[in-house]
């Protein structure tokens, strides 16, 4: 068998071997059952004491969300001011400047919301101080925010009828001490011993074999690259992210980074089933998500391995596949797999340049982000999927003519309204945002911004439209990857994507938690013969159908104008 | 509400120390035992630093094996892909020009023998590797310019080839800097 395909199959299997037991472990951790990491309890107690937190204090869903929003606001304010003033702070061996206010606005929101859209290049746009105390710090805590929020939802369905849902700070701290930090240490060590720099040395210089004087950017990257993947963050140390040979030195590190970004999203799904004592529901959700991933992955691999029809016309050999924007050490198969994984879960790190992938691949990357719940980001993946579940429950209820129920609780008008609003939010932000960008591009080409709108696009025609669509879609999905040809460091993109980011992060967290909180308080109705059970294959297929129909209705026109149009023009 | 604000600020400070100071220092300390002591693995020729093992260099002279086209000109202070879309007409012209250059410097080379990686830009602009096929088609040129036998150069290529991981996973590749260094050592 082809070694490239064998490579990605092995990678996925190892992901399952780690992700599934990790899910069972997480369910125990958050349920407060005995686990082998309990030796960390004293450290957690110190953290609680220093922070003035009583971790036994119970919160209802509203208090949970208040705590979550408060700490996120603290990070927003703190980070904005530090980024603007980073040139005056220590740990800046390369002498990089402070960020402009609009860039800092975009950067801080982007990292607080776990998106990691980067309108700067890591080598010149940040200092070692901000890389550590803003970027890497937020990569931990934003992932923990997502995980802790998901646990609040889990809590609502564990007992028959509850309003007290545990303590947000406890879930948050445990996400870091029991999961993110230990795993990050392991991954960072693997990276370090494979050639990723970890020291605080600044740029180095050497004279190449041909006599050119070359400077090399370095720095303590390994620690950050570990959490960037484990926390489904994706923001790179270097500008080109994980295609950089220091950020991702060989095929082994590529496998490790791929595994690291998928294990927690898979673990959260399994943990959901175990935590609410309905393992089968967890497995059904996992099955639907995996099937959805394969629907996106298989055509992606086929289109990349097939190579570019335009390059084929030039008569050269594409025996390995399409190579523009890809690295030889990974090859097109692993790059295609990465591009699917990074868009369905909200990592957004890249090991090849998405702007240069084939048009169909681009369409599938966009679809992955539009759906955003085939596994999905740390914690938020299962929250997004939950919205689809509620819609599916509602539609099924209408079809059979009964009051819809979910896990023994009646789903009524209020819950369905919230789910419907959250469902509509994504298409609204993506389509309105792209429309606004196209309008500015078309009518205000000469606007006097850091990058003039007329110069935004790196490619003409349909592909140029895809660059704008991709940027807003990525912001909405809190993904962070880009068609990086787009000239995005200017006031329009910094502000518009910043606004999209903040809405598309917090509303889709608050919505599902509100629904779960409301449902959890309701009287528990025991299941009877007439109950529509959520943990059946039939209902799994129903949910998938809901996802497909909603996505197709919302986005088909936009996709037709961008990648699909490019695909058909290249066919002739 | 006020309680949450104070708790948030204090928790943030505690975690800044744990995640921003203690964690990276552990990794930096461990890194000192890695190859290159956590600074990146440098490559020496006669005691002088001539590059980094993982970072590609620009090779344009005929006596060297050429690497992939780079949107960053192999300037490792930064990094960049071309971000050219597959249907971009200007981009396709660039590729055509690269093919012409290869054909000119490698007489007898057939278009259909040129692998795509040698005429397309890498993702990072610093790709240290080329495919085995990309090395093979340059053997004749390099051997001629350096007055070496084909077998000698073939052997050098073979030595610089890394097989798939464990012989099973991922592509085969040739490190261009390692290849050219061995040639320089051989010619001396």
Automatic annotation (TrEMBL), chain A:
Its main location: membrane. It is found in: Cell membrane. Keywords: Cell membrane, Hydrolase, Ion transport, Membrane, Potassium, Potassium transport, Transmembrane, Transmembrane helix, Transport. One of its GO terms (cellular component) is plasma membrane. It is a multi-pass membrane protein. The chain crosses the membrane at residues 6-27, 67-84, 133-154, 175-193, 258-276, 283-301, 374-398, 418-441, 491-519, 539-562. InterPro entries: KdpA. GO terms for molecular function: hydrolase activity; P-type potassium transmembrane transporter activity; potassium ion binding. Pfam families: KdpA. PANTHER family: POTASSIUM-TRANSPORTING ATPASE A CHAIN, POTASSIUM-TRANSPORTING ATPASE POTASSIUM-BINDING SUBUNIT. Part of the high-affinity ATP-driven potassium transport (or Kdp) system, which catalyzes the hydrolysis of ATP coupled with the electrogenic transport of potassium into the cytoplasm. This subunit binds the extracellular potassium ions and delivers the ions to the membrane domain of KdpB through an intramembrane tunnel. The system is composed of three essential subunits: KdpA, KdpB and KdpC. Belongs to the KdpA family. This is Potassium-transporting ATPase potassium-binding subunit. It comes from Arcticibacter svalbardensis MN12-7. The gene is kdpA.
TrEMBL record, chain B:
The gene is kdpC. It holds the Pfam family KdpC. HAMAP family: KdpC. This is Potassium-transporting ATPase KdpC subunit. Its main location: membrane. The system is composed of three essential subunits: KdpA, KdpB and KdpC. One of its GO terms (molecular function) is ATP binding. The keyword Cell inner membrane does not apply. It is found in: Cell membrane.
């Amino acid at each position: 068998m082809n070694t490239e395909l064998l490579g990605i199959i092995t990678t996925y299997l190892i992901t399952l071997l780690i992700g599934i037991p990790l899910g069972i472990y997480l369910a125990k951790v958050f349920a407060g059952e005995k686990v082998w990491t309990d030796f960390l309890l004293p450290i957690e107690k110190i953290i609680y004491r220093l922070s003035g937190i009583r971790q036994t204090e119970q919160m209802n869903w509203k208090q949970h969300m208040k705590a979550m929003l408060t700490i996120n606001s603290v990070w927003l304010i703190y980070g904005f001011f530090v980024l603007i003033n980073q040139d005056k702070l220590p740990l800046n061996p390369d002498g990089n400047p402070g960020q402009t206010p609009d860039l800092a606005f975009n950067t801080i929101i982007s990292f607080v919301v776990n998106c990691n859209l980067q309108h700067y290049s890591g080598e010149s746009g940040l200092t070692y101080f901000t890389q550590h105390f803003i970027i890497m710090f937020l990569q931990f805590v934003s992932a923990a925010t997502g995980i802790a929020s998901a646990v609040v939802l889990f809590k609502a369905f564990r007992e028959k009828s509850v309003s007290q849902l545990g303590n947000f700070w406890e879930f948050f701290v445990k996400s870091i001490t029991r999961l993110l930090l230990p795993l990050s240490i392991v991954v960072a060590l693997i990276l370090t011993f494979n050639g990723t720099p970890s020291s605080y040395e600044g740029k180095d210089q050497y004279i190449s074999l041909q006599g050119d004087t070359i400077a090399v950017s370095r720095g303590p990257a390994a620690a950050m690259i570990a959490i960037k993947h484990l926390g489904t963050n994706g923001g790179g140390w270097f500008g080109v992210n994980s295609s950089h040979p220091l950020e991702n030195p060989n095929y082994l590190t590529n496998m490790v980074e791929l595994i690291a970004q998928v294990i927690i999203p898979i673990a959260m799904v399994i943990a959901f089933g175990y935590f609410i004592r309905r393992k089968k529901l967890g497995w059904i959700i996992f099955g639907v998500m995996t099937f959805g991933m394969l629907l996106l992955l298989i055509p992606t691999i086929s289109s990349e391995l097939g190579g570019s029809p335009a390059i084929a016309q030039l008569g050269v050999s594409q025996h390995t596949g399409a190579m523009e924007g890809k690295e030889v050490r990974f090859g097109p198969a692993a790059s295609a797999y990465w591009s699917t994984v990074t868009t369905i879960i909200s990592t957004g790190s890249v090991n090849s340049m998405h702007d240069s992938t084939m048009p169909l691949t681009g369409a599938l990357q966009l679809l992955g982000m539009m759906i955003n719940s085939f596994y999905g980001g740390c914690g938020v993946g299962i929250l997004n999927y939950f919205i689809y579940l509620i819609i599916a429950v509602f539609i099924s209820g209408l079809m059979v003519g009964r009051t819809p129920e979910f896990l023994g609780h009646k789903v009524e008008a209020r819950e369905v309204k919230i789910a419907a609003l959250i469902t509509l939010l994504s298409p609204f932000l993506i389509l309105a945002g792209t429309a606004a960008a196209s309008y500015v591009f078309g009518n205000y080409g000469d606007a006097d911004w850091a990058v003039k709108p007329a110069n935004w696009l790196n490619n003409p025609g349909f592909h140029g439209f895809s660059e704008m669509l991709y940027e807003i879609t990525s912001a909405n999905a809190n993904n962070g990857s880009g068609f990086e040809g787009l000239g995005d460091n200017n006031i329009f993109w910094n502000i518009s994507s910043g606004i999209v980011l903040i809405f598309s992060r917090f509303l889709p967290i608050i919505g599902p938690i509100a629904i779960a909180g409301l449902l959890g308080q309701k009287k528990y109705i025991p299941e009877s013969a007439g109950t529509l059970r959520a943990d059946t294959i039939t209902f799994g297929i129903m949910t998938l159908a809901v996802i497909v129909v909603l996505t197709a209705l919302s986005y088909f026109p936009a996709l037709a104008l961008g990648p699909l149009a490019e695909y058909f023009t290249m066919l002739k | 509400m006020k309680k949450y604000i104070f708790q948030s600020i204090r928790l943030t400070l505690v975690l800044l120390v744990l995640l921003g100071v203690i964690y990276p220092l552990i990794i930096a300390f461990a890194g000192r035992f890695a190859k290159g002591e956590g600074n990146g693995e440098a490559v020496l020729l006669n005691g002088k630093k001539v590059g980094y093992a993982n970072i590609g260099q620009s090779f344009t002279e005929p006596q060297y094996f050429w690497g992939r086209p780079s949107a960053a000109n192999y300037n490792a202070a930064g990094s960049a892909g071309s971000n050219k879309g597959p249907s971009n007409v200007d981009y396709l012209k660039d590729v055509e020009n690269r093919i012409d250059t290869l054909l000119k410097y490698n007489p007898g080379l057939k278009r259909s023998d040129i692998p795509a990686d040698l005429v397309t830009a890498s993702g990072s602009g610093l790709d240290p590797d080329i495919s085995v096929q990309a090395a093979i088609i340059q053997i004749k040129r390099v051997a001629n310019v350096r007055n070496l036998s084909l077998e000698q150069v073939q052997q050098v290529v073979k030595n610089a080839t890394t097989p798939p991981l464990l012989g099973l996973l991922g592509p085969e590749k040739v490190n261009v800097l390692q290849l050219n260094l061995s040639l320089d050592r051989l010619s001396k």
